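Justification of resources, computational component.

The compute hours requested in this renewal are based largely on the per-chain cost of generating structure records like the one below. Each record pairs the submitted sequence with a full structure-token output. That output is archived, and it is also reused by downstream analysis tasks.
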Amino acid sequence: MPLPKLSKLELQIMEALWSRGPCSVREIQESFPAKKRPAYTTVQTTVYRLEVKKALRRVKKISTANIFEAAVSRAAAERRLIDDLLGLFGGRSRPIMAHLVESGALTLDDVREAEKALLKLAGEEEPK
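The structure output for this chain reads:
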């Protein structure tokens, strides 16, 4: 099953599960910064929508609280976001790479790691 598209709030909820492990809706809600914390019912509704999308699942119930865990890995969600971003550029990565370089977000170490990955993918030896 393909990874569902996730909204910003859904990604924030998933981030709480990826970093904390299995959580209740209350624990997820409390993981948000106090000043920008969504209402409990907003988090609850979004968690149930993520469950329908199969991005998370209920693992147990403690008293009246359901405990949820991520059913989708962080890496898979990141790949989906990057694929969506590339889709906006017609699959071209150069505009994205140019922006990363110009903004200083891409370091020389990042470029070296990318080169190693590309060489490995191509089946060649790493440069010396």
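The CA atoms of residues 108 and 114 lie 10 Å apart. The beta strands are 23-24, 56-62, 65-70.
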